[in-house]
Amino acid sequence: MTPLPLPRSRGKLSRWTLTGLAAGLLAATAGGEARADAAMALDKGCLSCHGDPPRGKAPTLAALAQRYAQLSADELTKKAEQLCEHRLLGGVAAHEKLTPEESLRLVRWIAAGAR
């Protein structure tokens, strides 16, 4: 049995279809990264203190997101360095477990809204 020929492209329809597929793939990738960052925040214990309700005087992730959203890329990098070097709040066990890469990912995720 011979396979049926594929329909020919009809110009704009195929371009729009491809554009939609590409946009969907990009959104899925971005959503996957955000979910991975949220999972890392949970795994590293961030939500133990910065969840809702927060522990003690710790700010919630939403409050941190509002603060961090105002920062430039360089300021976020500096904030991440301070976090993993224990200069923001010294002696926080969860902070001490962060690598520089994890710290930067978390700070960027928080600045993007922590969602």
UniProtKB/TrEMBL annotation:
Xref: PROSITE patterns: CYTC (PS51007)
Please give the superkingdom of this protein's source: Bacteria
Q: InterPro entries recorded for this chain?
A: Cyt_c-like_dom, Cyt_c-like_dom_sf
Cytochrome c domain ranges (all copies): 27-114
A molecular function annotated in GO for this UniProt entry is: electron transfer activity
Bilayer-crossing regions: none
Q: Which UniProt keywords apply?
A: Heme, Iron, Metal-binding
**What protein name does the entry list?**
Cytochrome c domain-containing protein
Q: What organism is listed for this UniProt entry? A: Tepidimonas fonticaldi
